[in-house]
Amino acid sequence: MTDLQQFQNRYFDILQSNEPMRTNRLVNLMTDMEQVYEIPILKRAEFERANPEVMHLYRLVSKSRNLEEVTK
């Protein structure tokens, strides 16, 4: 199993969690992906073209967060 598949499996597992734990776990997942894939802080088209599957999952994870719930 590749790193990306492991991250995808982790993502689907996290979706079963309730808030605010779900968003906290999603934030941790994003951090782990940033470290493994060296995702740049600023958007770089070159990196995105070279890593479309990684960036697709990264954006999906990001959009799945509920930041309003975490701040309560």
Can you walk me through this structure?
This protein is mainly α and 72 residues long. The model has no long low-confidence stretch (mean pLDDT 94). The chain starts with a helix and ends with a helix. It is 72% helix and 0% strand. Helix 1 (3-14) packs parallel to helix 4. It has one domain. It is built from 5 helices and no strands.
Topology:
Elements: H1 3-14, H2 21-37, H3 45-50, H4 52-64, H5 67-70
Task: Provide a concise account of the structure shown.
By secondary structure, the protein is mainly α.
Number of strands: 0
What is the gyration radius calculated from CA atoms? 12 Å
Give helix % range.
over 70%
List the domain count as a whole number: 1
What's the overall average pLDDT, rounded?
A: 94
Largest sheet: none
Distance between the termini: 37 Å
**Strand pairing plus helix content: what structural class?**
mainly alpha
Question: What order do the helices and strands follow?
Answer: HHHHH
Q: Name the shape in a single word.
A: globular
Number of helices: 5
Percent range for β-strand residues: under 5%
Which runs of at least 5 residues are low in confidence (pLDDT < 50)? none
Based on the model shown, name its key terms.
72 residues; mainly alpha; 72% helix
